[in-house]
Specification:
It is a single chain. The chain is an all-alpha fold. About 85% of the residues lie in helices and about 0% in strands.
Length: about 110
């Protein structure tokens, strides 16, 4: 009977190890998926910010040619506000990515 008890304990021990590994893999996968989504969001925000930079640059060049003050142009000011807003969002996402990747933030 002792041999059967050892076999049963070894099987139970193996099952516990498999459960721990599966739990760890599940947690890491969840974290990596979350980081991936945050990185995609960050990329989209960077594209929007770059578009606002292009608009601002084109507008600044156009206004410079016509000797008009850049600060008085509503389109240029909207682009500048958009750049500022997107940059703040990108910075927040970077912080979120760091927190999630080191495991500080739980859902």
């Amino acid at each position: 009977m002792i041999m059967w008890d050892r076999i049963r304990r070894n099987i139970e021990s193996g099952i516990d190890r498999v459960r721990r590994v599966a739990h760890y893999v599940s947690d890491r996968t969840r974290i990596e998926v979350r980081v991936g989504r945050l990185l995609m969001d960050k990329g989209e925000l960077e594209i929007r910010r770059d578009k606002a930079y292009r608009v601002l640059g084109e507008r600044a060049f156009t206004l410079m040619e016509s000797n008009v003050d850049l600060n008085s142009d509503p389109e240029a000011m909207d682009a500048a506000r958009e750049i500022s807003m997107q940059s703040e969002r990108i910075d927040r996402l970077k912080m979120d990515i760091k927190k999630v990747s080191i495991g500080e933030e739980e859902d």
